[in-house]
Amino acid sequence: MPKHYRPAGKKKEGNAARYITRSQAVKYLQVSLSLFRKLCILKGIFPREPKKKVKGNHHTYYHTKDILFLKHEPLLEKFREMRAYEKKIKKAVSKKNRDLAERLLTRKPSYTLDMLIRERYPKFIDAVRDLDDCLSMVHLFAALPAVEREKIPVNRVHNCRRLGHEWQAYIARTHKLRKTFISVKGIYYQAELDGQKITWLTPHALQQVLPDDVDYNIMLTFLEFYETLQAFVNFKLYHSINVKYPPILDPRLEALAADLYALSRYFDNRASMTESATTSFSESDVSKDQGKGPNYDESELRLAQLQQQLPSNEPGALMHLVQNAAETDEDDSETRECKTLFKDVKFFLSREVPRESLLFVIPAFGGSVSWDGEGAPFKETDQNITHQIVDRPTQGHKFLSREYVQPQWIYDCVNARILLPVEEYIVGRIPPPHLSPFVDNEAEGYVPEYAETIKRLQAAARNEVLPMPGVGKEDLDDPQNLLVEGVIDRAEAIEAATKKRKMSVLQKQYHDELKKELRSTQISTASDGNKESVSEHIDAGEDSLPDLSQISKDADSMSKIVMPRKKQKLLKAMEIGKERKQASVDRLKERKRKIEEGKKSGK
């Protein structure tokens, strides 16, 4: 009998019962492979790696319980209904029944992913933890062109832009942005929301090229889920600061679209009417007003607003939303620090700088910003502008009342949390290296030179005292301990110096007595003719005597070796200070000597 023989009809056990291959799952659910992939993406079901692959290593395995969840998913029945309905439409078109086909198209069933969001994320904090990939995907498709052959429609691109700008408006309003970094791939951002750090990547505002080796159907399935998730998160965040969602944009910033401008005015008038008091108007007056004008549904007007949304106007409109939002009272210390970084600074953006990114970063840190174009809050000729962001080799016309800096200065100031000196970032100069805030220099074992400069500037801005070489930061935190150790070290140093002096005196006395004894013996035994040889012997005796300087150096080195490491570092720092003082005194003496020589030569 084979080792793994199982009689027919016996229940499966082990990995054979717990796992199922992809082809078996597709056959079990009676769906196509593309629909199976879509269901797995929406439900969050991923392949598994069993310890023992029963069917072989070339198969993809899924957990049997996951497939059973898919079997009872209501979305699967909805997809089957939609497939049957599409067959009806195709049949009507093939029979050339145009009226029936049009009626069927208007009643085409649709589905929503709301229940999946609530199922996968029972709490809001769970959705916040999973926002990294969501935000990166939404911002990626917001920058892609609408291509019909890749099934990327225009409304999906506009919806991604709207969701991305709404998220950025909330982060800028609540000052939750913490880090930024410009890389070759794009611009990295990190925000802190409910104690969770969210990092996402936005591509540069350039013409994007779509590669051919990417399956956009899978990416669009992920995007479909992420759009619903982002809309839920934005809704929750906006209501947490008492702002209506979706936001109504400023009509001044949509002057290029007349219809959209009129719809926004209608929304503003309707909001002002509800805020003032509806009690002054009776129901009859409202019915009369509705009889005079067309009766629009709010959802239809909002849909028309989104369809006609101009991408160039959205950043400024959302910045206007940020300015008008209500203030929050409960802010932590880091949020308060970010809020006041650009508090008294007024920026103006030139045409060549990344406007959308700077319109997001500058308000997030408390600054006011304007740009060159219609709908700007203030013009370039405003005398209150303190900094103008320029990214060109030279600047022709300049205002003396402001600084002209490169865009990197904004991002470096944000990462350092201080206003860095602008001399290194002026127009036409190569800026210093753009350091990543996501890298821990201490852990890497290498601290760049500019990072040390920023550290010193931060300490100067916060009135901190940096430790001397050889002294740790824990010594500065406990000055009493440092004082005690300094007193002990000083007493030990004084005791060692006295011992050294006594030893040197005794050694000198011994050497003098030895010299006298040698001279007396040589003079008594030598004749007058060989006095020169006697003197040579005396000199040789002096040379054979031990060197006093070498003995003192040996004593110093021995005392250093006996000292603890911390005291050795402190002694080394004291010696470095003495050497620097002596060098400065020597320089002053040399300068004085040169001045005197110059006076003498002049006479």
From TrEMBL:
Domain BRCT span(s) in chain numbering: 337-427
UniProt-annotated location(s): Nucleus, Nucleolus; Nucleus, Nucleoplasm
Top-level taxon in the UniProt lineage: Eukaryota
Ranges for region Disordered: 518-603
Gene Ontology cellular-component annotations: nucleolus; nucleoplasm; preribosome, large subunit precursor
Cited PROSITE patterns: BRCT (PS50172)
InterPro entries the record matches: BRCT_dom, BRCT_dom_sf, PES
Biased composition (Basic and acidic residues): 529-540, 575-603
Listed Pfam families: BRCT_2, Pescadillo_N
TM region positions: none
Keyword terms, alphabetized: Nucleus, Ribosome biogenesis, rRNA processing
Principal place of residence: nucleus
GO MF annotations in UniProt: ribonucleoprotein complex binding
Cited Gene3D superfamilies: BRCT domain
GO terms classed as biological process: maturation of 5.8S rRNA from tricistronic rRNA transcript (SSU-rRNA, 5.8S rRNA, LSU-rRNA); maturation of LSU-rRNA from tricistronic rRNA transcript (SSU-rRNA, 5.8S rRNA, LSU-rRNA)
Family per record: Belongs to the pescadillo family.
Record function comment: Required for maturation of ribosomal RNAs and formation of the large ribosomal subunit.
Name the record gives this protein: Pescadillo homolog
Gene name per UniProt: LOC102588856
